[in-house]
Amino acid sequence: MKVGPTNNRTDIVRLYEIQQKKRQPEKTGKPDRVTDSFEPSTAIQELQELQKRLQAIPDVREDLVAKLRQEIEAGTYKPDPQKIAAGIIEELRLDRRS
User: Fold this and answer.
1) pTM value?
2) Phi and psi of 22, rounded to 5°?
């Protein structure tokens, strides 16, 4: 191989092509590109299903609100003090656990 200045463009192009071929990996019959794949576990799939169900539940139970509103307006709403106290205590217990 000649090591010196050359003015012949075809020699330069040929040398460039040889170098490029040396840098390219040999083809082994395998695909050039390996693709990644992701399949969520069953636990994640169950969580996603639960999230969808929770999003379908309304934030306000309109039917219960309407019923209570009617009872209050009619003067027939009689809250149970025992249930109210039990609910407050339960909320306090849950807050302490967090």
Assistant:
1) 0.38
2) -65, -35
